[in-house]
Amino acid sequence: MRIVFVYPQFIHLAGTERVLIDKMNYLSSQEDMNVYVVTYDQGTHPFAFPLAPSVNHIDLNICFYKLYRYNYFKRLFKWLKYRRLLRKRFIQLMAIVNPDIMIAITYHPYIMSLINACPGYFKKVLESHIDKCYLHSNDPVIRNNLFKRIKSIYSMVYLNHEARKFDILVSLHQKDANEWSKYLKTRVITNIVHLNDTARTSNLESKHIIFVGRYTIQKGIPDLFKIWDKVYQKHPDWHLDLFGDGDIREIPYNEEYSIKKNIHIHPSDPDIFSRYIESALFVLTSLYEPFGLVIPEAMSCGLPVISFDCPSGPANIINDGVDGFLIKNRDIDAFADKISLLIESPSLRREMGKAAILSSQRYSAEQIMPQWLNLFNELKNNPS
């Protein structure tokens, strides 16, 4: 079976990139599976996570990221030229590969259109990694920018049009699947998670609390700072470490104040499991989170987790009061109280940490990937 994943590039240390690479690596290890990944913006950049040699990587070398060196009008002209070139190269390549199944991600509708433009018979699978209700409208700036609002509406119309031509969409939870079911068939398969494989877990004695995520409004970092202000008043000997991509200055952030409050800002760390193991608690304050890959990652290192009960992922992962705490969405005081409770109760931390390790195993490749194999076999054996 020839399976083709299509994605612009795998440059960033981000959740979707991690999931796709782990999935491709697993599939390529299976007998009678030929796995291809087609990119067009990778260039000479290394993959963010290790790609198995058994995965066939083909980069179409269009490199849209280079357009930002030009002024607006020249950029627009070259962008149109690059899109035509991408379409030509992609269709020619697929005629050679002759795939059985091609896979795209919902937030790249132009890739969906490329797949739909390819002649020949193959099955088309969409993966949803952001809830449909947040796609192309998840930037708060859109509400105050007429041009961006119009662009968002157009993007959703375009996306829905292309999605109808796919055979099935795989969502991370039922609520999102229900939204997509108006346009095509759906199935729920949760993410696989790259779990802790270091043979080490946290001893939970460190006075460090860890947050991992992009430095964006969506991750609720301003609320995290408000929570920490309350925690720090009670426990000034504890520290808050943030690891992520992006510019923290885009979020209300005072460097001098943060240093005084034991808040430490770090870039993304490829060895994030070591950072989990050096911590005692994990916190997540997202406004919305279709899954929350970092939650089972942290759990697999023995960390209790605390998260807002935001739409939609955390409630599907955390067993409230067992391996962590789910907090009423945006309840700052309750979140701070639960952090203080775990700080003040080492025995409760240890109890929850043990439960977290067991809980995280639900998302191992061995548990999740057979569902994907079954889906692919169903699609290949069903010509309709």
Notable traits:
Rossmann fold; 13 strands; 384 residues; 13 helices; seven-stranded parallel sheet; six-stranded parallel sheet; 2 domains; alpha/beta
Class inferred from helices and paired strands: alpha/beta
Outline type: globular
Strand % is 15-25%
Please write the CATH class name of the largest domain: Alpha Beta
Find the CATH superfamily of the largest domain.
Answer: Glycogen Phosphorylase B
- The CATH architecture of the largest domain can be named as 3-Layer(aba) Sandwich
- Model regions low in confidence, pLDDT < 50 over at least 5 residues: none
Mean pLDDT: 94
Percentage of helical residues?
Answer: 40-55%
Rg, Å, rounded: 22 Å
CATH fold topology of the largest domain: Rossmann fold
Number of helices in the DSSP assignment:
13
Largest sheet: 7 strands, parallel
Order of helices and strands: EHEEHEHEHEHEEHEHEHEHEHEHHH
User: Order of strands in the sheet with the most strands?
Assistant: 3-2-1-4-5-6-7
Oligomer: single chain
How would you portray this structure in words?
With 384 residues, the protein is of the alpha/beta class. The chain folds into two domains: 209 residues, Glycogen Phosphorylase B (Rossmann fold, 3-Layer(aba) Sandwich); 156 residues, Glycogen Phosphorylase B (Rossmann fold, 3-Layer(aba) Sandwich), CATH 3.40.50.2000. The chain is built from 13 helices and 13 strands. Helix 7 links the parallel strand 9 and strand 10.
